[in-house]
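Quick one before lunch.
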Amino acid sequence: MDFAAEIENLKKEKNAVLLVHNYQIAEVQEVADFLGDSLGLARKAKESNSDLIVFAGVDFMAETAKILNPDKKVVITSQEACCPMAGMLSKQQLLDAKKAHPDAQVVLYVNSSGECKALADSCCTSANADKIVNAMDSKEVIFGPDRNLAHFVQKRTEKKIVTVPEDGYCYVHEVIELPALEVAVERHHNAKIIVHPECPPDVQKRADHIASTSGMVRLAKELPDKEFIIGTEVGMLHRLRKENPEKKFFPAFENAVCRQMKKTSLEDVYLSLKEERFEVNVRDEIRAGALKAINRMLELSV
Ligand code: SF4
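Model of the iron/sulfur cluster complex:
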């Protein structure tokens, strides 16, 4: 079966929109209506006037789309696509941190559960984390669950960042270690280094630029350089190469692969559209609070 053609037919028939994260496999990226990072896709979900939203990404992203679109049907292409980092922060840990720091406001990375978002003052993504933290009223900000992104923000704010949990991380960016990056630099010594703020602090320090995936897309276009070493999930390279055919992109570490992002095949996208599987639902009591935190982020990041 020509899954790509069937997907296009089903999208029209059902007035559906297909939102795809930058880390998905190349074949899935190719059939996207919108391809982007968490922030870009959340914006597209909010603007959508489709009857069906199909999300090829991980659990918290589809949940965010549902929180923004309670009256629409939202489906995720794989039930097993659960971000381990989002699972590293529990509601109880967040309640404990709030109790210990009663004057602190809470900024949570969108890579978190809906029930944690419901306790936050604002969400953020890697594209806007420092801007959102700096917009908070308090001198202390509880921030989680990624300690490396917290480190990135701490370097860009006068506020005291309280990281919760202390050791939350993304296993994909955590394996992009400095020795691996140095090997890539030896091989491609003219290349500019761009890394994601989920990478370890010493890798961030070594980079020429630290950027979210949408920031990488922009920098790759704008910078005059012809070669780049990219420190993030390797699925990102497909988009960068496609949009900049005259430039060269090399992974900082080629085994930086998110297994959860790779759970979705083209057939899964087809089946999600055809059978409207797997539906995402959010309980009302969680939705109201989480919506406030997501909308605050969207307002502050304009
Ligand atoms: S790349 Fe990291 S943060 Fe993103 S979904 Fe995979 S495990 Fe989660």
